[in-house]
Amino acid sequence: MRLVKVHVQNYRSILDSGEIDIENIKTVFVGINEAGKTALLKAINNLNPGSDIEQVNLLRDFPRSKYSEYVQSKSNEETKKTPLVKGWFKLEPNDLKEIEGLPSFTKDLIDLNDCLYVRDQRYDYCSHEIQNYKRTTFGDIRKSTLRLIDALSSNSSAQEIIEKLNNFLENNKDDSLYLSLDSSKEFLDLIEKAEIKIDEDDEKEISRITQLIKLTKINIFYSELLSFLNKKLPKFIYFNNYIRVKPLIHLKQLTDRQAQNIIDDKYYDYGNLSLLKFLGYTPKELSELGVENNSTDTEEFRRKRDERQYKLNASSIRLTECIKEIWNPNNLKDEASQLRVIADGQYLKVAVIDQLGAEIELDQRSEGFQWMVSFFIVFESQADNDYKNCILLLDEPATSLHALKQKEFIKTISKLAEKNQTIYTTHSPFMISQDELDLVRIVELTDRAIGTKVNNKIVSNDPAALFPLQEALGYNLAQSMFTAKKNVLLEGLTDLWYLEGINSLLNKNLDSNIALLPVGTSAKVSYYASMLSNNDLKTVALLDSDTAGEKAATQETVIHSLGAKNILRTKEFLSREIKNSEIEDIIRETLAKIFQDEYEIELNVADLESDKAIVDIFKIAVKDFSKFKLSKAFLKWTREHSLSDLTDQEIQNCTKLIETINKRLK
């Protein structure tokens, strides 16, 4: 299952986060310090925590300023049901295959493709349901059952079953109620007994009974499916910067603390216990192997000691290989890469071996490397070596890494996210990729009385919340402006997303050496064109065919810097004339469908066939229409569709656009 949406309430700085859209692969929560990013992750973790490192407590975790007012008029049972976090999960193809193997499943029973498993976790109570699953109510069966009773009345031997059916309906008078599992089984038994009393040639009543049986089995299967999905619910793996693996562990002391449940430092001890789980031992087992042999069975003791040594050696090799993959060390700079786990009596040590062969304790290496090692060990041990059904919650990952290492670590997160849906928080511009801005959610806290809010669109009431995004764009723009020999100037960020989406549908036919540079507005095109041309870099500009684009295209500076043939207008790539066309018109029909799905609004066919720009049509249909929201929806659409899902004309438009850019920058 994949998490598609969450809603957090009544947790620390969060009164009501609003419903937060979660991406299929990776979602990034961006916000300033104290905005509530950590609170969001910890609340989400409670949907199905992979460990009990931090359990919720109403007194400690409920928003403090509202606590007295909230609890004074509520019973203990009511406070236990205080809303905390709600999660919506969609079923994936593998889930559907397993569901087909359930005892009560039949193909014609119900369409599961649109069903969502919803888990509603309260402070000390949990409920769950399946949305978009049409369950049977007593109202759905009442009339047909009464007609069946009427048909049975002519059979003198059916009086007992008639009485039981009447009693069943009489005891369940509320037509809006769903049949429970017990009610469904009871009713199914009655209907099957009634079937025997009906003449087998009476097709009308046999058909009625068949339909009643199907309606009943829908609810029986619902209970079975609900139980199955509850067991399939992904575990949430939470990791923050404070969880570390100590470089030196005293096994006997850790064993005693664990036995007496007096973990003195939950973050360090948690990291240490994770290391031992990674090694395949409990603290007690490894501690006992560190005691001098007092047994007469010397051979057995030696065998266990050897087994410990072999396991530690194998784990050291595995740890080294995995850390190399995610750390990507530079051997020319003697960056840490090789690790060794050593057991010496009651001490367990994690050491790093440098290029000279010297063993150095882990805590003598950089903070960034210590964090990386701890991250991997905790994740690996919590996931129980099975990455298939875990959702990663990374709280401010890699803050102790150098900026360039942070850029590298984004790739590591992407690798993890291929197998494990990932949500991470950050306020570092280097942890935000320019081509993944559609994955960003803005977290802000502008008023304590309102609490933490999350915006699904890249908008914010607090300019500081957008600062990391601005920095990320600025850094990427600066990096690409004078390093790429081929450049495309775009008016804005949404143009970048559309062009990237089109390129992905065309199997990335755009020359990989070309940098896409969103400059902000068409008015700024002249500045960037001048700077790039002065550095002898090949550049084209892609401009809308509206008034602003026309003004930019006719500026003397732009024409002089780029040359007329390198000023591309969107109207050049359309099969028919569209007034004031923009890049959106290149994929006009597909965007109209995406718009209708996104806003649940049916567009006028005549408008779509007119010469109006598609964005103008959208703005008339929806007052608060957002170009950002639609472009993000298009990017998401491209990940789930192929080129063949565009219309033939759109394929021609897109192909011509990419080929023209490649040709102009050849």
Largest sheet: 6 strands, mixed
Strand percent estimate:
15-25%
Shape: flat
| DSSP strand tally | 19
Strand order of the largest sheet: 7-12-13-3-14-15
Classify the helix fraction into a percent range: 40-55%
C-alpha termini separation: 45 Å
The residue-averaged pLDDT reads 88
| Poorly predicted segments | none
Q: What is the overall number of helices? A: 25
The rounded Rg comes to 31 Å
* Class by alpha and beta content: alpha/beta
Tell me what the structure shows.
InterPro entries: AAA_GajA/Old/RecF-like, Bact_Antivir_Def_Nuclease, P-loop_NTPase, TOPRIM_OLD. It comes from Acinetobacter indicus. It is a single chain. This protein has 666 residues and is an alpha/beta fold. Among the domains are: 138-209; 238-385, no CATH class; 482-664, no CATH class. It is 46% helix and 16% strand. It is built from 25 helices and 19 strands. The strands form four sheets. A six-stranded mixed sheet has the order 7-12-13-3-14-15, sandwiched between helices. A hairpin with a 3-residue loop joins strand 5 (116-122) and strand 6. Helix 13 crosses helix 14 (367-382) and helix 18 runs parallel beside helix 20 (556-562). The longest helix is centred in the N-terminal third of the chain and has 30 residues, at 203-232.
Summarize the structure.
It comes from Acinetobacter indicus. The chain is an alpha/beta fold.
